[in-house]
Amino acid sequence: MKKISIVIPVHNEEGNISLMHQRIQAVFSKLENYNFEMIFVNDGSRDNSQAILEKLSQDFNNVKFIEFSRNFGHQPAVKAGLDFADGNAVISMDADLQHPPELIPELIQKWEEGYDVVLTNRKYPKEISFFKKKTSEIFYRFLSRISDVDLKNGGGSDFRLMDANVVQSFRNFTEDDLFLRGLTSWMGYKQTTISFVAGTRNAGESSYNIKKMMKFAFTGITAFSVKPLYLAAYLGFMFSVLSVVGYGIYVIESFVSGTEISGWASLIMTIVFFGGLQLIILGIFGIYLGKIFKQVKERPNYIVRSKKL
Ligand code: UDP
Ligand code: MG
């Protein structure tokens, strides 16, 4: 019998874990030909989540948990689940029921048809703010454009199924700044996408605020594109051409009209402008340098405090 592993990152989800477990259990009670396990990854929750997980894993053999030593983030939590899952296919999904477990049979169906990766394309329900919908849409379009990965279809969701082979490939990644959506797209394999309407969060509140979303977006861009680094070269080239042309015009003009070149204000503005531009570009270099610095230390993505597998 084939085995499906479900990986669920948990950060302060005490109000959702039991319901999540029940809903998945219900789904698999109708899928008789499959074994399944649930691997909850407790990413440094400060609420009762760990106690609930320990109880649940005592009551049910196929409920497992990995407890982190502190909060490492959503992406490392999913990675940890993939590192420990041994199913023939692994499904990752959020704990807050925004990813409907009832979609699991459809994911498995596509996998059985021969796809290695089944992505989901999240359509937002009416209740989600216009702001979040738009910013996320613009971000994924922008990221797809400036990087080598295509995230337009199904990129924006961490609800996906991966074949054991794909999961094995994932284990070889030692990247510091994990951006699993990008990595999945980058890896290739046979991929397909299905759509679903995301629900609203069941209980508790979202761990992603604007600051975390910005950081996530930044990670995505700098992990998958070096184009910002080329900005300096492009701009430098553009301004060199402009200055040669401008210089020519000024010299000819001063000969023809016989006047000195005037314009103290414009000179200062030019100096300020280029000073600013140089700092921005230096900053971009700094960001990439920082990433290299973090990477060469080769720290692990997460630390496990306890686990039951
Ligand atoms: N999560 C996590 N670590 C974090 C933040 C979130 O493991 O630092 C988990 C969280 O428990 C949930 C999933 O990641 O299962 C998605 O988080 P959330 O629902 O807060 O994000 P949103 O759906 O609002 O984007
Ligand atoms: Mg959520």
TrEMBL record:
It is a multi-pass membrane protein. Residues 5-148 form the Glycosyltransferase 2-like domain. It is found in: Membrane. GO terms for molecular function: glycosyltransferase activity. SUPFAM superfamilies: Nucleotide-diphospho-sugar transferases. The keyword Zinc does not apply. GO terms for cellular component: plasma membrane. This is Dolichol-phosphate mannosyltransferase. The chain crosses the membrane at residues 229-252, 264-289. Gene3D superfamilies: Spore Coat Polysaccharide Biosynthesis Protein SpsA, Chain A (3.90.550.10). Signal peptide: none annotated. The keyword Transferase applies. Keywords: Glycosyltransferase, Membrane, Transferase, Transmembrane, Transmembrane helix.
